[in-house]
Amino acid sequence: MLSSLLARNQYSSRIPSFREAFSLLAGRPLRWVPQLLGFLVVIWYFGPIIRGGPPDDYIYELPLPIQHPHLPPLYKPPTASANDWKLRSHQVREAFVHSYKGYRDHAFPADELAPMSGKIHNNFNGWGVTIYDALDTMWIMGLTEYFEEAVKVIGEASYTTKPKQYVPFFETIIRHLGGLLSAYALSKDPILLQQADRMGEMLLPAFNSESGLPAYAISTRTNATRGGWTGNTLWAEALSNQLEYKYLAHITGKPEYFEKAERCMQLMYEANVTDGIFPTQWNTKTGAPSNNKFSVGAFADSAHEYLLKQWLMTSRSETKIKDLYLNASKSIIEHLLYITPNREMLYVTDADMLKPSPPKPNASPESPKTTTQGATSIPSSVPSGTFEHLSCFLPGLLALGVQTLDLPESEKEIHSWAAEGLAYSCWLTYADMKTGLGPDVMSMKMYPKNEDGLWLPRVEKWKQQGRSGRPPGLREPGAASEKAGRDYTIYKRSYLLRPEALESFYIMWRTTGNPVWRERGWTIFQAIEKYAKTEIGYASIVDVDKSSTKAPVKDEMPSYFLAETLKYLYLLFTDEEIIPLDRWVFNTEAHPIPIFEWTETEKKLFNIS
Ligand code: DMJ
Q: For a designed S-S bond to 421, which of 31, 161, 301, 346 qualifies (C-beta 3.0 to 4.6 A apart)?
């Protein structure tokens, strides 16, 4: 416009001054409009780039890490072969629909479905835990109608407890809050953020103990708290809120969420714990360790997970947390991994850690295993010999560590072997049973002298002897249907539809690319279909080794079956990598949370150094 004006007027031979140009344009207000709009668009579009990226308080508008909803495997070709993974993932999706529909038709809005009788269980808060736990699986499977219906119900919840009612903090965080946060991250539905924020606020007073460790349960009506039956805070309870509260702090900008969660981490940094051997119980008042049991099973399990995953979730920025994971996993491998005498099954147990032995008269102060007073600095352990299904998450965690940590080659080797050998043992405990489903707890056969069964010294010896054949614990004995050949007895005979073995198979598949993990997962899914399926859902199995035809079932369908077991199976079978492991971390209830970076504003606001 300006050039056409210039071409037609007295100033055409030279560039006009700003005042001259303005006076020429002044009489033509309408012809200004497109120019002005164009200018505004350019400023709007390039402004953030010129200013150097999005502003720091850009909290509610996080970009989606992946495109959703992805297309579910709806098609079912008539000629599909039995090992068509698309068809298999479709079958898992159908299993999910079968269980959620059963819950929806018979138990909604109670906590869980009783899948035999069609009755209900209000075994948690009575807030409909199955809806919260199933939410992100619906999204991942592309079940948008169920998802939208569930979000409507969730939008109406108040989370106020009834008089005298207390809700368990740990379970509510990992199932309800984890479910809300994950579904929000996937769908960006603001109702989910609003409800996550509401629930997060209402549960926060659980941290108001003298030490800052969370109480077992809380009344959201009065903010009063209660301890659990141990009288202590379990290590799993102390740390299995970090992913949830820190992500919540990130998406709401509220420092109190970060501070309360971080206080628990602070206690871990300050605790006088040798070699990352964090015990299973902590004094809620003083924040100090209160027993000497080291475990990856019940009481401890998810705390181990949250060390590595916290570091991953905040884009590997909080290196102090990574060091805790490195120490703890080293100690697990050293003190808790054993092999059985005949089958050489690698397993993880728990142990009472003995205090360092008293000074030896001739001990050299320079010896790496002695303190300057001559006492042994490395504690010895007394293993229990139990192997819990709950511990079958560990191979997946170790494999994730191998994939994401910059471990020295020799450690990488040990962690990968431990992951592979343990995942195989978890598989064997399924393959050995008449139903093909794994028992909840096993009692492992031990060497007459316990320390002879420790895995790590055997691996070192194998290395020194020239590494012939596969390392100990990785020699893959075949399934043993006869009790005598198993090297263990069954301590708890139930299969509670738990996810841990399948969770590890999924991570093993994604990190090693070995399709054998998919095949094993498929075998387990078929056993679930055969023995656990009822007319309206899926039921826990009472005795996994009872019968080769129909196993007796319990009238229970835990919500984690929809949150975890079916989700991991689905992700194991879909070829598409729906939840890439470099962009998401799974909370301990399999709710994926996106990996993010703290902004400069957050670092200042939350005091993150
Ligand atoms: C789930 O609720 C969670 O994975 C928890 O951390 C422990 N295990 C159960 C399912 O077995």
A: 346
Residues 6+ apart with CB under 8 A from 1: 25, 31, 35
Whole-angstrom Cα distance, residue 538 to residue 151?
A: 24
Quote the strand ranges of 431-546, DSSP E: 441-444, 488-492
Written in H, E and C, the secondary structure of 200-248 is HHHHHHHHCCCCCCCCCEECCCCCCEECCCCCCEEHHHHHCCHHHHHHH
For residue 301 and ligand 1, the question of a CB distance below 6 A is answered with: yes
Q: And the tokens for 511?
A: 């990190």
Which residue from 241, 586, 588, 591 has its CB within 8 A of the most atoms of ligand 1, so it is best to mutate? Answer: 588
The verdict on the CB of residue 99 being under 6 Å from ligand 1 is: no
Is the per-residue pLDDT at 57 higher than 70? no
| pLDDT tens figures, 473-516 | 999 999 998 999 999 999 999 999 999 999 999 999 999 999 99
Return the structure tokens found at 363.
């001990």
Phi, psi of 265 (to 5 degrees): -65, -40
Say yes or no: CB of residue 498 within 6 Å of ligand 1.
Answer: yes
What's the pLDDT score for residue 39? 72
